[in-house]
Amino acid sequence: MGKSSKHKFKKVSFKLSYAEYDYLQKCIALEKTTANKFIKHYIREGFEAMKTRVSDWDNQKQPKNQLLLFDFDQAPLQSSMLEESEFLYTDQETKDV
Questions:
Q1: What is the Cβ-side half-sphere exposure of residue 92, based on CA atoms within 13 angstroms?
Q2: Which residues are within 8 A (CB) of 68 and not within 5 positions of it... i.e. 6 or more apart?
């Protein structure tokens, strides 16, 4: 039994219009390279341009299973249990008891 191969890469496919494909072929001829090398090169450039924005977004992301326990943007609201329970009883009810 051979060692199972680990896939280091993911496959991506997309569709191009005829005009986009024609333009891609012209760019490839101008750069004297292959379609894959051309596309990978410009994807890497795009990734480099987005690197700071992605890292900022990644640092702000909160895990789905983490609860937000404290809201530090607002001052805490203090209340009394007695004040909250006053609305439960009216004067009439207390006289009947």
A1: 0
A2: 62
Q: Which tokens is 2 given?
A: 């051979």
Q: Which two tokens stand for residue 16?
A: 């191009």
Q: Is the dihedral of CA 58, 64, 70, 71 positive or negative?
A: positive
DSSP letter assigned to residue 82: H
Give residue-wise pLDDT tens across range 40-65. Answer: 999 999 999 999 888 888 887 666 66
Helix axes 35-60, 18-31, angle to 10 degrees: 110
Give me the residue spans of the domains in the chain.
Answer: 14-58
Residue type, 88: L
Task: Let me know: does 62 contact 68? Beta carbons within 8 Å.
Answer: yes
Provide mean pLDDT across the span 25-50: 94
Label residues 36-68 b or e (16+ Cβ within 10 Å = b). eebbeeeeeeeeeeeeeeeeeeeeeeeeeeeee
